[in-house]
């Protein structure tokens, strides 16, 4: 069941295909469009972060510890280590009464290349606060302590904090907790896997919290996604695709490592998830822009901004335009009975 998400042309010859899987669900949870094997269980990677932060928000912990709304939004992000990101993480740790060393990941240099070069030139060592997952780690330590366990164990799958996260992922994805596959993420905490339809469904609920029965969780989703929309630079950083998408008040979006993207559209009441099969993280904006065009997305400005950021031009070592990078799939927007609702 091959499905090409990204095609690379050198001259007029198709040189590379990046295959994968894609699912779009409607507000009833039915599959509106699909490509590839959407039943294949797939790790969310960091696309779970907006869901992982919710137990903390439900319990009112950001307010209790004096987090700003912008700091709360950072718990859902994979920040690039731009200067303000590190400052915010250190502020959150101080307010919560944690030490930077309490986080289990190794010290890291920023993903932001400009900030990385500055640190190297000035001889500044890496630090844990600059790791892209540090906002999530602060949130998980808060949750662990709130649940009455040693917060130093927050990273263990058996911990109360991680079991609570598993419960939320199961509820949002509508996939049984005992069937969710787990592994260890790059930053050392558990990572969770569900079929693509279920991943898309979870972002439908983030975009449309009225679909959530629990009023406390519904309010938490509104608060957290509202903060992300207000401060989209917290989700990644200035100059990144994830930030650009969340600048659109109609979109809640989060990427994950190894070619994962999940998107919720509020007005259209749709959930979208795709995964590049070979794990390529290049040209994901090309896929996102093409999906939005296929869905006849009304905000052309968002699509144009994506295409300006990722124009789909193949540049060689001499800086010459030698080809193009594009998505060419078609989304059949008729309901697909191959994937009936609820299965």
Helix content estimate: 25-40%
End-to-end separation: 19 Å
CATH architecture type: 3-Layer(aba) Sandwich
N-to-C order of helices and strands: EEEEHHHHHHHHEEHHHEEEHHEE
Let me know the number of strands.
11
SS content category: alpha+beta
Number of helices: 13
- Which CATH first-tier class would you pick? Alpha Beta
CATH topology-level name: Beta-lactamase
Measured by DSSP, the beta-strand proportion falls in 15-25%
Instruction: Please compute the radius of gyration using only Cα atoms.
Output: 20 Å
Low-confidence segments, given as residue ranges, are: 336-343
Task: Supply the number of structural domains.
Answer: 1
Mean pLDDT over the full residue set: 95
Largest sheet: 8 strands, antiparallel
- Globular, elongated, flat, extended or rod-shaped: what is the shape? globular
What does this structure look like?
By secondary structure, this protein is of the alpha+beta class. It has one domain (4-326): Beta-lactamase (3-Layer(aba) Sandwich), CATH 3.40.710. Helix content is 36%, strand content 19%. The protein contains 13 helices and 11 strands. The strands form 2 sheets. Strands 1, 2, 3, 7, 8, 9, 10 and 11 form an 8-stranded antiparallel β-sheet that branches. It has a 3-stranded antiparallel β-sheet with strand order 4-6-5. The longest helix has 16 residues, at 215-230. The protein is globular and about 60 Å long. The two termini are 19 Å apart. It comes from Harryflintia acetispora. This is Asparaginase.
Give descriptors for this structure:
single chain; about 350 residues; alpha+beta; 8-stranded antiparallel β-sheet; 3-stranded antiparallel β-sheet; 11 strands; about 35% helix
């Amino acid at each position: 069941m091959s499905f090409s998400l990204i095609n690379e042309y050198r001259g007029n010859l198709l040189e590379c295909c990046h295959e994968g899987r894609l699912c779009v669900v409607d507000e009833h949870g039915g599959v509106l469009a699909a490509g590839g094997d959407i039943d294949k269980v797939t790790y969310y990677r960091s696309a779970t972060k907006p869901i992982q932060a919710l137990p903390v928000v439900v319990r009112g912990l950001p307010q209790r510890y004096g987090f700003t709304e912008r700091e709360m939004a950072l718990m859902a992000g994979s920040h690039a280590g731009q200067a303000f990101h590190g400052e915010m993480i250190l502020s959150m740790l101080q307010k919560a009464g944690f030490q930077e060393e309490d986080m289990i990941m190794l010290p890291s240099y920023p993903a932001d290349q400009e900030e990385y070069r500055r640190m190297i030139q000035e001889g500044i060592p890496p630090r844990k606060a600059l790791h892209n997952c540090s906002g999530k780690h602060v949130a998980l330590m808060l949750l662990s302590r709130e649940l009455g366990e040693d917060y130093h164990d927050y990273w263990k799958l058996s911990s109360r904090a991680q079991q609570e996260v598993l419960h939320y992922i199961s509820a949002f994805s509508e996939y049984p907790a005992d069937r969710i596959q787990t592994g260890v993420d790059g930053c050392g905490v558990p990572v969770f896997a569900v079929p693509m339809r279920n991943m898309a469904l979870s972002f439908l609920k983030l975009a449309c919290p009225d679909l959530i029965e629990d009023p406390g969780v519904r309010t938490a989703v509104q608060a957290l996604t509202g903060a992300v929309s207000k401060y989209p630079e917290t989700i990644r950083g200035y100059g990144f695709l994830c930030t650009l998408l969340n600048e659109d008040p109609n979109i809640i979006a989060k990427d994950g490592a190894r070619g994962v993207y999940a998107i919720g559209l509020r007005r259209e009441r749709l959930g979208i998830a795709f995964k590049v099969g070979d794990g390529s993280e290049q040209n994901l904006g090309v896929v996102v822009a093409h999906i939005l065009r296929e869905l006849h997305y009304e905000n052309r400005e968002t699509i144009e901004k994506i295409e300006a950021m990722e124009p789909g031009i193949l540049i060689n070592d001499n800086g010459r335009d030698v080809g193009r990078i594009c998505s060419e799939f078609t989304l059949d927007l008729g309901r697909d009975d191959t994937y009936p609702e609820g299965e």
